[in-house]
Amino acid sequence: MFLSKKRSGNSTILCNFAISIAPLMIKLEQIRKILKDHWGYDSFRPLQEDIILSVMDGRDTLALLPTGGGKSICFQVPGLALDGLCIVISPLIALMKDQVANLRKRHIKAAALYSGMSKHEIELVLNNCAFDPEFKFLYVSPERLKTDNFRATLSHLRVGLIAVDESHCISQWAYDFRPPYLEIAEIRQFFPKVPVLALTATATPEVVKDIQDRLHFPQYNVFQKSFKRDNLTYYIVKEEDKNNRMLRIMQRYPGTGIVYVRNRRKTQETAEFLQRNGIAADFYHAGLDSATRDRKQNEWMQDQTRVIVSTNAFGMGIDKPDVRFVIHIDIPDTLEGYFQEAGRGGRDEKESVAIMLYDDADIRELKRNFELTFPPIEDIRKVYNILCNHYNIALGDGAGRTFPFRIGELLKPAAMNMVAIYNSIKFLEKMGMVFLSEDGKSTSQLSMSIGGERLTIFEEKNPEYDEFIKLILRSYSGLFTRYVKIDEIEIAQRAGISEEEAVSLIHKLARMGLWSYSPKTEQALITFLTPRVDEDYLYFSPDIYKRRKDVAQKRLEEVLHFVQCEDTCRSQLLLAYFGEHKSPACGKCDVCLKVHKEEVNNKDFKDISTEVKKVAVSGIKDIKDLIIKVSQKFTQEKVVKVVRWMIDNGELNLET
């Protein structure tokens, strides 16, 4: 009887266990199938599966994955698995466009809303999302959330997930705080049972807590991958002759690389210097037209260009695994920015280096730029007033209106230099009053306004355009349901006419109501987010101004400490900044190598390095053979430390 009861009890336990794991196994099977079918991967990266399951259980979730950690998969897979639409909130227009394009290549319906789109484009996207159940992803900028037409559409949307990319922007303690992000929590009232997935690559512990509070997480729920990169070695080198040191680095580390500089002019100058010295290099910045940027990026991705020299505009959404070196020849403004840029090296988990070259002038420049970033409040008011006058914005008007932006047009009326104007506008942006889109460039798009019987009638009434209309319809699919990218040059070639004639015809047929045409733009855009107020009533709280400057001052001090510190491992410094305080020293950075050198007394170091050079000259080129040979006279531990120091300081070049 006892045995019988025991068996019965065990059966019940096993039965309950089987019931409890059954839903989990079904979810696992579902998301793994989605990953395989759409992305071709057999398994998830570390933490991705846990994050996705947390979201699918309906839990608000914060995912901290370093650059290259696969954040987009974390919302795209559950977005496909869950019923309804996934709303993705992102401040990066270029990244939104890129992700929408990639989803469409995988035959997944997706669209984006951002500043600069026409009213017709916006209505078409919203209608598709509301009434086409196969539409799975809607990317929106945070500024879009508080517009009337978007709010009016929310009640018609079946939403399964809200994803907040770059979620650190919601925290006032973050390096890139954006007031429109505060609107995110307000739209949760429309979807009280829909989980929120917040994602970011970099956040301090203070910011991690603030993100969850501001998004109204009922419980803290964080998945965080360590920021430690064992295969990435950080070096900070004080160097007056940066160009020649940069060349030596590229000779020491074969493979592709990125060089980051502060301004656009320097990208071209540095790339030309590298070209003169036999390096296949090119430059990249946000001021280039979209076609040129795409070409330069593709040539680098395909290894036709070895080194890309860029401002911080380069890298978002680019996943090139075999970057062997990332060089900064200007000091970044924040450790968050530096960590993301440096982290683009070694995504294939192979050894790579992140090297920052600086001199005393760079320290002075960094401090000067910090002061310029916070212009006097009087200057900010003045620039706001000039902006409104320049675009003929009347008092109480302007909210939601977008205009082409050329900063040079403001120089004369402002009687200020370009840097002061730009920083004043960026401060207005941080106050949530305007939004400057420097990546607002776009290709031409077309969407049919009429179809079916109305189209037939139109063609019968206008037979002279019939052949041209049919050519367009044959060349591009999807024109009746969404905006489609078109190429006027290609259309002209197919029609046997000039590009100017093709553009003129497209414009004419648009005026006749046949289709809606959005020509390509090659310039920045500025959007007014709030109605214009009188300059005298434009209030900036001195307390808020001071608090933001204090936060920025603290970040500046952290950068300077990281650069100038000579007694703590670089990896430990970075990890401590992001809340990981118990990591071991990397043993490879410039500080650790200096410690290794000091552990070998000066006389021994000189004797060992002399012997190493002598053995290397004798013909031994394999590092292991060299260490064995020199260790016949000195202890192997000291030899290894000296050899490592010599290699990393360019005094020895061996096969490894």
Structure, explained:
By secondary structure, the chain is of the alpha/beta class. It folds into five domains: 11-224, P-loop containing nucleotide triphosphate hydrolases (Rossmann fold), CATH 3.40.50; 232-358, P-loop containing nucleotide triphosphate hydrolases (Rossmann fold), CATH 3.40.50; 367-441 and 524-553, Winged helix-like DNA-binding domain superfamily/Winged helix DNA-binding domain (Arc Repressor Mutant, subunit A); 445-518; 600-648. The protein is built from 26 helices and 19 strands. The chain is globular and about 95 Å long.
Task: Write a compact overview of the structure shown.
It is built from 26 helices and 19 strands.
Features:
5 domains, alpha/beta, Rossmann fold, 656 residues, single chain, Arc Repressor Mutant, subunit A, globular, 7-stranded parallel β-sheet, 6-stranded parallel β-sheet
Spatial shape = globular
Protein structure class: alpha/beta
Number of strands: 19
Strand order in the sheet with the most strands: 3-4-2-5-6-1-7
Task: Using the coordinates above, name the CATH class of the largest domain.
Answer: Alpha Beta
What is the helix content? 40-55%
Based on the coordinates given, report the CATH architecture of the largest domain: 3-Layer(aba) Sandwich
User: Helical stretch count?
Assistant: 26
Q: How many domains make up the coordinates? A: 5
Mean pLDDT: 87
Distance between the termini: 71 Å
Q: Within the CATH hierarchy, at the fold level, what is the topology of the largest domain? A: Rossmann fold
Radius of gyration: 29 Å
User: From the structure provided, what is the oligomeric state, counting identical versus distinct chains?
Assistant: single chain
Report the biggest beta sheet as strand number plus sense, adding barrel if it closes: 7 strands, parallel
Low-confidence stretches: 1-9
